[in-house]
Amino acid sequence: MSDRGVMGGVLRRSSFRLRMIERACPRTAGELHRFVKRGLGLDVPRRAVVAGSVSPFEYLRRSFFGDELAGAERAESGDLVVWANRGGGKTRLGAVATLVDLLFKPGIQMRILGGSLEQSQRMHEHLLQLLETPLLADRRVGAGGSVLAKPATGRGVTLMNGSRVELLAQSHRSVRGTRVHKLRCDEVEEFVPEVWQAAQLVTRSGRCGRWKVHGSVHALSTAHRIGGLMSTLTGMHETPGENAGRSGRLLRWTALDVAERCPASRDCASCALWEDCGGVAKGSRGFVSIDDLLVQRGRASVATWRAEMLCERPTREDAVYPMFDPALHVRAVGALSEDAVLVGGMDFGLRSPTVYLWAVVGECEGREVVHVVDELVARDRTLGANVDAVLARGWPLASWVSVDPAGLARNAQTGRSDVEMLRERGLRVRTRRHRVRDGIERVRSWLDHGRLLVDPRCERLIHSLQAYHFDRRSDASEEPAKDGPDHAVDALRYLIVNLDLGQRSVSVVGY
Question: Global pTM?
């Protein structure tokens, strides 16, 4: 037989194999699970054991059926965020989700973008291993039994049905030159924020065979950095309503949800995991060894374990105010001494938010306290408009308002400073030059002694006190990062630095 005839036979066998697989396209979650288990050899847990968690299979279900099959009822679609533990199967599961899309949605175009090229390659390696399963690569006919249109490379895979996936480097040039149906991002906590923002514009919807594929971005990661990208994507420390609908696309599971079933013979009372587990691992059906979890629990600090394995919250090692605890410092204003006074703190902004804080200073339960009772946060408004909003809030005129010393500088156009404009409107302004680190230490001192309290209505300040962090790119840096949560805490710092409890004039008792 000629070479052309051999090649023709190979292509026919490959096309036949792919058509047979496409005919087995899952129509239900149960069929999808059976295909992954029997066809790919992976038994993905279908049941979570920790309250608030989802099973890892729920990600596969949402990823696959989030695209509408012609004539079928529309399932959930759109972007997804997977927050899971270290070793929780995120990368392998991303490869599985990629493969089932490649197989059953002809012509789909996808890209894998990791926190580093090495991370992208890990997911790609899992994908290549899955393509070597007997269902997809028949050794009896060599390469001719494969579903691949050409040999896979270290940078991508193309199937006979026109589906294709490639790896992207963590760079603007790589991301901006891309237009695909789906972008799967692995370990986004390591992403450069600017590259992440550029990645939001690379997807497009389109029809792939019988499927209407919705352009979407899937983010998979741990969340271990205070103020990191996952804090934003998961909505941690976020003011309510700021990202409506986020909870519907957030999928979270922990090490206990992917643990193997704990033997009945193991004594829970003497187990080092009991405090975290409470016996739920007796009903888990995962793939992570209980013995491995016990060893890891013994090696890791409590903060690291809770952040990276139980997915509770990031560690506080980069936090500027690690001592801030909402359970301790957030409470409604209570009974104050009769000579309590009202003061203010203000951080100027135009493109960035302007923040104004109202605080009551007085004696409470036998000690002097500062209780922040209200906040105003506004952007894209003039200073005059912000002052109007402050005066219209309904609070008495503050005894004084502390502001950024930069407010003393005269505007080149008007010849007046922001401080002068505030004083012309009747506000009593204080400003004091200080080093940022000194101001931070003053705020920390008030927090440490439980003398700085925040009313629950001050949602932006509460968020900022939790998310404000040092620049993690440099261990030697003593300057906090200026990436969003700094404005409200700056207003608080100005207030604390200018605080003089000996000067009082405006009573607020009974207000």
Answer: 0.75
| Coil vs helix vs strand at 76 | coil
Rounded Cα–Cα distance for residues 289 and 47 (Å): 17
How, if at all, do strands 109-114 and 452-454 pair? unpaired
Helices (H), 239-363: 274-277, 290-299, 302-308, 326-329
What is the predicted pLDDT for the residue at 5? 45
Asked if 317 and 303 count as a contact pair (C-beta separation under 8 A), the reply is yes
Q: State residue 479's pLDDT score.
A: 78
Gyration radius of the chain over CA positions:
28
**How far from chain centre, in Å, is Cα 169?**
21
Residues 6+ apart with CB under 8 A from 68: 74, 75, 77, 211, 212, 214
Which class for 95: exposed (0-12), middle (13-18), buried (19 or more C-beta within 10 A)? Answer: buried
pLDDT at 251: 95
* Element (DSSP H or E) covering residue 203: none
Secondary structure of residue 144 in the 3-state scheme: helix
Query: For residue 142, what pLDDT band results from cuts at 50, 70 and 90?
Result: very low
| Residue 419 main-chain phi, psi, to 5 deg | -60, -45
Q: Within 13 Å and on the Cβ side, how many CA atoms surround 76?
A: 15
Proportion of the chain in helix, strand, coil states, percent, rounded to 5: 35, 20, 45
What is the pLDDT at residue 93? 97
Q: State the residue for tokens 């899971």.
A: 84
In this prediction, residue 245 has a pLDDT band, given cuts at 50, 70 and 90, of very low
pLDDT tens-digit profile of 377-435?
998 888 999 999 999 999 999 999 999 888 888 876 667 888 999 999 999 999 888 88
Quote the distance between the C-alpha of residue 393 and its chain's center: 34
Q: Are 499 and 370 in contact (CB under 8 A)?
A: yes
Q: What are the start-end ranges of the H helices in 240-376?
A: 274-277, 290-299, 302-308, 326-329
CA nearest neighbour of 489 among 447, 432, 433: 447
End-to-end CA distance of the chain: 97
Residues 343-378 have pLDDT tens digits of 999 999 877 889 999 999 988 777 888 999 999 999
3-state secondary structure 150-195: CCCECCEEEECCCCEEEEECCCHHHHHCCCECEEEEECHHHCCHHH
Residue type, 60: L
Q: Write the CA distances from 389 to 322, 384, 419, integer angstroms.
A: 32, 9, 17
Q: Which neighbouring-strand residues pair with 220?
A: 82, 186
